[in-house]
Design a protein that fits this description.
It is a single chain. This protein is an alpha/beta fold. The protein has two domains: 119 residues, Rossmann fold (3-Layer(aba) Sandwich), CATH 3.40.50.10090; 115 residues, Rossmann fold, CATH 3.40.50.10090. The chain is built from ten helices and eleven strands. It has a six-stranded mixed sheet, with helices on both faces. A five-stranded parallel sheet has the order 2-1-9-10-11. Helix 2 packs parallel to helix 3. It is elongated, with a radius of gyration of 19 Å. The model has no long low-confidence stretch (mean pLDDT 93). Its EC number is 4.2.1.75. Belongs to the uroporphyrinogen-III synthase family. Keywords: Lyase, Porphyrin biosynthesis.
Length: 241
């Protein structure tokens, strides 16, 4: 199987290395450009804990010189938690992989009376943690630390490979990436190529966003994690062998 990975530049290798080790060829097609947004690191001094819903936010936190390694952090899932643990953060907890999972986790583990929470996020979010946690007494300050802009067109290489049916599957880890891909494929007149491909989605929400592309099949990972996505790809490879 030959798959297209749509993660931002610099994050492709995380999945690609695992796939390559299993004998699966991959191509990179970053559909979002991640750009840091200036923010005041002084906000880290006040909250009782930090909330993160993406690995991009984790990486921006790691850029802050002298950030406390014992800072309590609640991450949306293992992929967001991993960069912090590697850097020596000792008080990081990961939820089940979705923003809803994270809110449930915070409600169970954190006392809203103990102080405000700090939510480091991208400019565009699918769920507002501050609004979701407010009804149960939490005060959440949201600070934007990066923004993601979509590319204007698919690369010439990807267009060529799709046109000649040389891509068997495509991997999507966010609904926004899925929507960008669909719009670019439709604009390029390659919906027919998608009808011969399998899409691997990290969640049902992502799968829903892929409908306009008309994939032959959309496989949803058993859990919202990179490991589950890789397992789904490997399982499909075995079935097709």
């Amino acid at each position: 199987m030959r798959v297209l990975l749509t993660r931002p530049q610099g994050q492709l290798e995380e999945v690609g290395a695992v796939l390559k080790a299993r004998g699966i060829e991959w191509l990179g097609e970053p559909l979002l450009r991640i750009m840091p947004v200036p923010w005041n690191a002084a906000v880290l001094a006040g909250p009782q804990a930090v909330l993160l819903t993406s690995a991009n936010a984790s990486r921006e936190l790691l850029k802050i010189p002298g950030a406390r390694r014992d800072l309590p952090v609640f991450a949306v899932g293992p992929a967001t938690e991993a960069p912090l643990q590697t850097a020596g953060f000792s008080n990081v907890q990961a939820a089940g992989g979705t923003a809803v999972n994270l809110m449930v986790h915070v409600r169970q583990k954190v006392d809203p009376r103990a102080g405000r929470l700090l939510y480091l996020s991208g400019r565009d979010i699918s769920l507002d943690l501050a609004a979701g946690l407010a009804p149960v007494g939490f005060a959440v300050d949201r600070v934007i630390v990066y923004r993601a802009s979509s590319v204007e067109r698919l690369s010439a290489r990807t267009l060529h490979e799709m046109s000649w049916n040389r891509i068997d599957g495509t991997v999507f880890l966010s609904a926004r990436t899925a929507a960008v891909f669909c719009s670019l494929v439709i604009a390029s007149g390659l919906v027919e190529a998608c009808a011969r491909m399998t899409a691997f989605a990290i969640s049902l929400q992502v799968a829903e966003a892929l409908k306009p592309a008309g994939f032959r099949q959309v496989v949803v990972a058993a859990a919202p994690s990179l490991d589950s996505i890789v397992e789904a790809i490997l399982r499909r490879t075995t079935e097709d062998a």
